[in-house]
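Q: Could you fold this chain for me?
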Amino acid sequence: MKRSILTLIVLGTIFTGCSTVQSIIRSTFPYTAIFVIPATSKINAEQSATSQASSFDQIFTGQASNTESIRDVRVISVKIDATLPAGQSLGLFKSVKIYISRGDSSKELLVATRNDIATTVGSSIIIDADSTLLVDSYIKGSTVRIRIEYVLRSAIAYNINLKASLGLNVAPNTAK
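A: Sure. Below is the predicted structure, expressed as structure tokens.
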């Protein structure tokens, strides 16, 4: 039993310490955030919701570990899924914008937008990410916040939960 625990600790240290592995983890496992769109949201008016985002290594280790091991971080994809109620069509949105910020700063960066969302889109949509932007300073902070700005096409009768997943492209920082 002690040997298994020691092996897990050693492997965990190796995997979170290596810059190449960190870049693979960060680019493979997205940052995710859960938003609640309240039933009281107005139609044809820009509104927003903010949520703290988490990544695989934050969930696994409980902290933002080893962000010095990565560089040139870019958001390359953003996907939004309706999680509650299941199967909820996202065609109720006219437009969606996604912003990223550090928890200790009010400075935000617009990383993805989608306008003219079709009414027949289904319960999952891909948002057009601006992959030219470097978001190193946001991801390397202790807390990452994601804000969704949206315009509803029609009224909703109940709260809707959304999950936003930000896919990242990162490079290992070998010049540490």
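A (continued): The first helix runs from residue 2 to 17.
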